[in-house]
Design a protein that fits this description.
18 helices; about 400 residues; disordered N terminus; single chain; mainly alpha; two-stranded antiparallel ribbon
């Protein structure tokens, strides 16, 4: 074998350091997330300099990660194959349908951007190791905390102004941050109930209060409902595996509930008051309105109204809008039954990965599953950059749990 005696190890033939571009994709992506958390908005009406910079950083992250190769190269995972088919369909039939229907170009672009976010795991191919998964997880926790702080410190200019005009508290990363911080705090107490673990748990729970307050401020019923189920699930899993160890987390939960019962009872009354005013939700009525609109012809049922399509939504007093409050009905409207089936298959694969991950990383899996479920069925936050990041994190942690890193602590 010929040996290049001129070129030193780690150098190119020209003597320039051989830099791993894929390694740079993680810090570039994290920079985009930090900027998004500090100054960005999930669904801005018009893109500004912040959105342009974030978009540039995302493009650089895609380039550095070699995501193009993931889109075009061999595919072993089912979600990759499903994502490729969905990508090809989304950039062909709904685009053609929107153009033929004369849909507004700006609305078509506003639909295509969330579609790209949906395919973010396909376009950014990050290293599937535990270090990368933890760094991206920490970045998403920062994002959730940053959004929460911005909600809590927002000062309306008029009494009638809403407290969260940019819908930051609805972002899936806010719920993810709260759940992950609570789950990791409980894990610390579960692994070892001591003064040191109590201090660590106290710090984590204090951080979790920030997103909890932000969600409480806008009275998010689904988020708190799933959060209660998540805590009960973790306690149940702990009780099955090691009944004695679960005593510490259960004791802390009980003490915190007793000490904070005053604010908790006030919040429960607010939840009940909101339910009596607006009912459960209008998702079913939205689905009926979309179905009625698409029933004009078999072609619209199969292929939808195209990107940029609008409809009179019963959820917002029959005002004409270009979205629904459910990912499924939105894609049914825009891409028809064909595109909806492709989206369900793609997300179904990722949901299955969450289920498999649940038995290895229960804290992370539940923290990801709750916003994944809510944004798919109940909230319009599936249009945001956050949702794409959430899906990317599912792929990262699943890669770790699949054994790509054999030294990981399976109790995470």
């Amino acid at each position: 074998m010929a040996v290049d005696l001129v070129r030193a190890p780690g150098l190119t033939r020209e003597g320039i350091p051989d830099i791993s571009w894929r390694f740079l994709s993680v810090p570039v992506l994290i920079c985009a997330v930090i900027l998004y958390g500090v100054a960005g908005s999930p669904t801005p009406d018009t893109p500004g300099i912040t959105e342009i910079v974030i978009g540039g950083l995302l493009g650089l992250a895609v380039f550095c990660s070699g995501g193009v190769c993931k889109v075009a190269g061999p595919a072993k995972e089912g979600w990759v194959r499903a994502g490729r088919i969905l990508m090809f369909y989304g950039f062909s039939i709904p685009v053609l349908g929107g153009v033929m229907a004369g849909n507004d170009l700006s609305l078509m672009i506003r639909d295509l951007i969330p579609f790209l976010f949906l395919l973010l795991p396909l376009m950014i191919d990050l290293p599937g190791d535990v270090s990368t998964a933890r760094r991206v997880s920490a970045a998403l926790v920062f994002l959730g905390l940053a959004f929460s702080v911005r909600v809590l410190t927002y000062s309306p200019t008029a009494p009638e102004d809403v407290v969260d005009p940019y819908y930051l508290a609805n972002a899936p990363t806010v719920l993810f941050a709260a759940l992950l911080l609570i789950g990791v705090a409980g894990k610390q107490l579960y692994m070892r109930f001591s003064a040191g673990s109590l201090m660590q748990a106290a710090v984590l729970l204090a951080m979790a209060v920030v997103p909890l307050l932000a969600m409480a401020l806008v009275v998010q019923r689904a988020s708190f409902g799933l959060m209660g189920l998540a805590v009960l699930f973790w306690l149940l899993i702990g009780a099955v595996k090691a009944p004695r160890r679960v005593f510490g987390p259960f004791l802390i939960c009980t003490v915190l509930l007793i000490l904070g019962w005053g604010p908790v009872s006030v919040f429960i009354e607010a939840l009940w008051h909101k339910t009596t005013l607006v009912g459960m939700n209008m998702r079913w009525q939205e689905a009926q309105a979309v179905l009625a609109l698409l029933s004009e012809s078999p072609l619209t049922v199969l292929f939808g109204k195209g990107w940029g399509a609008t409809f009179a939504s019963p959820a917002v007093a029959d005002i004409t809008v270009n979205y629904t409050h459910s990912l499924l009905t939105t894609y049914f409207l825009k891409t028809g039954l064909t595109g909806l089936v492709m989206v369900i298959v793609y997300l179904g694969y990722l949901g299955w990965e969450l289920w498999r991950m649940l038995f290895i990383f229960p804290v992370v899996a539940v923290a990801l599953a709750a916003p994944f479920f809510i944004d798919t069925l109940l909230y319009a936050s599936f249009k945001s950059f956050d949702f794409g990041l959430l899906l990317l994190l599912i792929v990262l942690w699943r890669a770790v749990s699949s054994g790509l890193n054999k030294t990981v602590d399976s109790s995470t």
